[in-house]
Amino acid sequence: MDKLKNAIREKGRVLSTEVLKVDSFLNHQIDVDLMMSVGEELARRFQTDSITKVLTIESSGIAPSMTAARDLGASLVFARKKKSLTMNNDVFVSQVYSFTKQETNDITVSKDFLNKNDRVLIIDDFLANGQAAFGLIDIVQQAGATVVGLGIVIEKSFQDGRQRLEDQGYRVESLARVHSLENGQVTFVDELQL
Ligand code: 5GP
After folding, report:
1. How far is the CA of 149 from the centre of ligand 1 (A)?
2. Handedness of CA 131, 185, 174, 192 (dihedral sign)
3. What is the pLDDT of residue 13?
4. What mean pLDDT comes out for the span 48-70?
């Protein structure tokens, strides 16, 4: 998606060969217009898949999931990273190791918002090693629901998340696929043959 790749090129900051900072449009300040376009494109790719729920994880997955859910006519549910005081104990829980924070956290989703009839599109801001994705998949499986696929805003293709997901048969749609962050530069997978 060109608009997204341009934003990454112009506003992204390469923090290391493994970490890309996109605080100015996705992870802290939000470019609403861009995130609406991102959600629309994710919805377009899953338009014919009868999605009933979009499942993401707070907080950065929420913005791109909103227009995706709207366009798919689906509800949007986000997994919480901290259990809310108003949440009762009827929750699905999974453990996720955070790539950026380097710690393991429980993520929770109320049993009220996922059931066995749901066809779920999982959306996240980044795909690195797939820990967040597998945590969300685990929750969908606990509910007895179906994972239809994963929609990712920025995939770091030099890490093994996509491979691990595809090895287990999951469909992964990523709007920007980063081939490398070497030498402080972002290169994208689809630029390699140019
Ligand atoms: P994974 O679980 O696939 O290893 O990592 C994905 C999660 O870690 C995402 O939800 C995202 O929050 C965070 N993440 C991984 N890599 C990056 C990165 O390069 N930049 C930012 N801003 N977040 C990342």
Report:
1. 18
2. negative
3. 98
4. 98
Q: Given ligand 1 and candidates 30, 126, 131, 154, which is best to mutate, with the most ligand atoms within 8 Å of its CB?
A: 126
**Burial, 193: exposed, middle or buried (Cβ in 10 Å; 0-12, 13-18, 19+)?**
exposed
| Calpha distance 69→90 (Å, rounded) | 24
**What's the gap in Å between 142 CA and the centre of ligand 1?**
24
Say whether 144 counts as a known binding-site residue. Answer: no
Q: Which atom of ligand 1 is nearest to the CA of 124?
A: 10
> pTM value?
0.96
pLDDT at residue 100 in the model: 86
Pocket test for ligand 1, best of 19, 78, 99 (most atoms within 8 A of CB): 99
How long is the chain?
194
Q: In this structure, what token pair is assigned to residue 61?
A: 């997955």
